[in-house]
User: Fold this.
Amino acid sequence: MDLVFDFAAEAPKLVQLLIGVVAFLAFVGLMLLLLDRAPMKERSWLHSLLLLGPALLLLGIGLVVPGIRTTLLSFMNGDSSQFVGLDNYAWMFTQPESLTVLRNTLIWVLLVPALVTAIGLVYAVVVDKSRFESVAKSLVFLPMAISFVGAGIIWRFVYAYRPTEGDQIGLLNQVVVWLGGEPQQWLQNAPTNTLFLIVVVVWIQAGFATVVLSAAIKGIPAEIVEAARLDGASPMQMFFRVTLPSIRPALVVVLVTQSIGTLKLFDIVRTMTGGQFDTSVIANEMYNQAFRYGEAGKGAALAVFLFVLVTPIVVYQIRSLRQRREA
Amino acid sequence: MSLLSRPARLSAIAASLGLALVATGCGNSGGDTAAPSASAAGGGEAASAECAPFTEYGKFDGTTVSIYSPIRDAEADLFEQAWKPFADCTGIKITYEGTGEFEAQIQVRADAGNPPDIAFFPQPGLLERFAKAGKLKPASEKVKGLANENWSPDWVKYGTVDNTFYGAPLGASVKSFVWYSPSMFAEKGWTVPTTWADLMTLTETIAASGIKPWCAGIESGDATGWPATDWIEDIVLRDLGPDGYDQWVGHDLPFNDPKMITAVDKVGAILKNEKYVNGGYGPVKSIASTAFQEGGVPITEGKCALHRQASFYANFWPEGTKVAEDGDVFAFYLPGNDATSKPVLGAGEFVAGFSDRPEVQAVQAYLAGGDFPNRRMALGTYVSANKKVDVSKAANPIDKLSMEMLQDPSTVFRFDGSDLMPAAVGAGTFWKGMTDWINGKDTKSTLDFIEASWPKS
Assistant:
């Protein structure tokens, strides 16, 4: 197979693509035209139908129907031919292996948002108004540009193991050897290996937290800061009594996005350990069960559980958004 | 840019436009009889002689057959080269797609109503799942006849589900091999063992000489653990016999049966013994993090003496390594318990159709015949259990040895068990369990875990 893009061979697809785009534009144009011709009285009703309709339809096809179907599948057996009741959920909460998966997800969701926010916050406060602020912020933001899979591969090299007698190719083990220690198999020794995976995500995400929180800190009205200074607030008091309460909404945003992202985390675990050595998390196990083992029921049960875990966070996020708008 | 004169450029553009139109026609309406492909038309008189072997398959001008397969890159190119004459002569355009995610993607494509015409299934267990779901079409009588003629009943059985034959085997690999360095053996005065006891004595001798005798690697991305499952299968096949092996694979013998614990511990006596592994890579645990492609490489550096891996490992030696009985590396048969019993563990692909259009059946029939494997073998390393294969023309000594073993009528052949079990076990917990086992988990709880994961229905 040659790698040259063969236009002649791809022509049918390109033609289909063109037809699709033209049809879409024609449809939208026609709808807008019809809307324009509609009598004034019914226009607002038609407006909302036309503008909301497609979005609702797509949401229905892409979210609601699959959601319902997944829930139904979670009560069926592996090839979805038989109703098995709550067996899949019983499996999830009784098997030691799946309990390990749930435990790992819990560790992840407790540690990642806390570490990312804490490190991002401290970093943002420390570099705030310093001479190298922009350089320092871009440095910590750089890993954000790397995909999770890319980062996973990079860090696998960092953690790579070679026997004592050979040359180390992993940075971490080389450092350990320089300090006079024995090289370790960082990714194979449970349960600390999960922590080594968490480091990777914190490395990627800390930049995001820094940038968001730094912007929030800059948004604190100067009068408040000045008033606190005049009242003789110590740096500690400034931080806990002025900065933190002022940037609370931004903190919540960071914590919430990180929590949701961590619950869904898949790439890092998959590329670095493949879920071996007791490092699997819900999303990875869900993929394995549904797509590799042909156990659609168990995969669906894990997906539903993941959905249940994410829902309260999303609800909280929406409520706090609404409160802020009303305030 | 000026390489083409203006008229030439114009005609080139016209030609590509014409091609585009033809291609569009093919894509949209199956009824169209598109122009025959350029090479078939250009051949003329000479082509008819070349095409003589293919007349029996018929003419299917303007048809396309899609093949989806786990075989990729260089190997896939050789496949395409090998069936090109057939494709040109019959007028069938074969579009081949290799993927590294076959097991997951074939399911997605079948569920989405977009299956390929033909898939090369590397696991009979997976084939069975699709056959039982009604997604596969039974093979034609012709393919069935060819398969019975060209393969041993052991092989035909693996393409059969509930007495219906779905797909003929294609390639094969022999797994019961131990790689070693003939020069190292000669230098130290070691001899190739012929019984299991000999093998263990040799292991002890090598360990006493100061190097760790065995090296292994089971890291394989998604599929990490499979080389360790091959070890287990080889031992089960030896200790429990072919019938016991079939019972185990079919789950008539529980995974955590005491006999299984004994068999796994027998492997553990090598793979989990710090004195015996992991030559060149470190302690036992390093087996789990060493890529299987690199598992045997320390043999070439003199840091390890034995590496149990399939015939296809011939492709993974560092460049310049001579694979031959008198070369740098070669393989011997992983001994049975005594010198007379020679069960062989192996694997291969099966050509099953999601469609039964006549051109699809023609391609299946061609791949099941004797012409294709011989053509493929002429292009480079290839092993098939097809009896029509001319073993004397094998690309290298290890292929030759493998095919001799496969074609020997007294050989008891058994397919890689993890490929026969339900995917939840064979491509899941068995791999994962063995990885955990290497990483320190004890035999009993490992086998209990795998047993518990066996699908109930």
About this structure: Residues 7-73 of chain A form one domain. Chain A has two domains: 7-73, 87-326. The interface with chain B takes residues 1, 7-9, 11-13, 15, 77-79, 81-82, 95-97, 161-164, 185, 187-188, 274-278, 288-289, 291-295 of chain A (CB under 8 Å). Chain A has a mean pLDDT of 86.
